[in-house]
Amino acid sequence: MPVERLSDMTRRILRSMFAAGLFDNPAVKAPIDFDAHAQVTKAAGTEGIVLLKNKGDVLPLATKGKTITVIGGFANAGVLSGGGSSQVVSDGGPGASIPLGGDGMMGPFRTVVYHASSPLKAIRAKAGEKQVRFNDGSYPAEAAAVAKTTDVAIVFATQWMSEGADAPDLSLPNGQDALIAAVAAANPNTIVVLETGGPVHMPWLDKVAGVVEAWYPGSRGGEAIADILFGDANPSGRLPITFPADDGQLLYKDIPGADKPEFSPAEITYTEGADVGYRHYAKTGAKPLFPFGYGLGYSRFSYGDVKVTGGDTLTVSFEVTNTGKRPGQDVPQVYLTNAAGTKTQRLIGWSKVALAPGEKKRVTVTADTRLLGNFDEAAHAWQVKAGEYQVAVGASATDLDLKGGAAVKASTRQP
Length: 415
Description:
Blueprint: H1 3-19, H2 34-48, E1 50-54, E2 67-71, E3 79-81, E4 94-99, E5 111-115, H3 119-127, E6 131-135, H4 140-148, E7 152-159, H5 176-186, E8 190-196, E9 210-213, H6 221-230, H7 278-284, E10 301-309, E11 315-322, E12 328-330, E13 333-339, E14 342-350, E15 353-355, E16 360-366, E17 374-376, E18 381-384, E19 387-396, E20 399-408, E21 411-413
Parallel strand pairs: 2-6, 2-7, 7-8, 8-9
Antiparallel strand pairs: 1-9, 3-5, 4-5, 10-11, 11-16, 12-15, 13-14, 13-19, 17-18, 18-21, 19-20
Helix pairs in contact: 2-6, 3-6, 4-5
C-alpha cells in the first residue's frame, strides 16, 4: 500500500474526529448503570420468548402443584449466549464457560458462554412455598425418576450455534431428545424450555404438556423465562422462522462441502427464487411443525370487520378483541395472497397491540408499495401491476381468518 494512501486514510479519520470535537471536548467516562441496562435486556428477552404449546393450560405455574423439578440445560448456571460475533460476556463474568475446541480456523472461538442469569434461581425466587429441585440431566433415567415424584418437570434444552459452524441436523445435541422423552414418559406435566439458535425437531412433542422457545434470551434471560413460566409476563413473541415437521420439508437437507477439508470450495444451486421460508411452505402445501408468525399466550384474541382500501398501495384495517381473562399483547399479521391475478403469499405488515380483557381496538396496516410488486432487473426497479390485490389477516402464516381486497394502481419504484 502506498504511503500516500495510508496518509489519506488517516487524515479522513482525524478530520472527522476534529470536526466532531473529540479533541477539544473529549468524552467523559461516566459510570454505566448496569441495572438499568439489565431491565432493557430483560424486557427484550421476555417479549421475544415464544410459547409453542400449552396443553391443559399447564402454564402459568403460579397455581400449579407444590413441587417442581428443573432439569438440564445448565439452568443452575445461566442462559446461553450465541457464539461468534454475537457472543458477549455480561457484567460480572459468565455463569459458565465451556471450551469445545476443534480443528480449523474457528476452533479457538468455539467456547460456549452462559450469561450468569440462572433460570433455576429465578424459578426458586418465584416459587414461594413450592419445593424446587434440580437435576443436571446427565442421566435420563435418573432425571426421569426424580421428575416422577414431582407435580411439574421443566426440562431446559440447549443448542449452541455460531457463525462459521453449521448445525449438521435439527436434533438437539448431546442426547437431549432422549432426556426429554424419558422425563415426559415419567411425568405428563413436563414443560420444555428451548434455548436454541433456530428450529429443532421435536420427536417428543406429543408427550410433553408445554414448550417454550426462549432462544438466547440475553443477560437477564433467566428472570425473563421465570416471568413467562409463572405468568408475571404474558407470552407475546411470535416465530420469525418456520419449524419444519421433518427433514423432507427442507429445501437443502445436506450441507454442501460438509465432508470436505476446511476452505474447500462447495457449489450450491439455488432454484427456489424468492419462495423461501413460509413462502416455500405455501407453494408446496407442506404442513410445518410450527408456522412462521406462530405463538400462543395466556389470553385469546379474535379478529373481525376487515376493511381494505387500494390506490397507490393497500391499507388494511380490522378489529382485534381480547376474548380472554388476562391482559395481553397480540401480533396480527397481514399477508398478500393474490397480486393482480397471481397467487402468492407475502407478509406485507403486522402490528403488536396490547389489550385488556374484553377490550377491542381497530388496527391499521399500510403496505410498503414495493411489497406488492416484483423487482425488474432490466429496469432496476420495483414494478407493481395494476389490478385487484387480495389479502388475508390472521395469527400466523397458516392461520388466516379474515379476507379482503382492493384495486391497486400500476407504479414503478426505484430501490
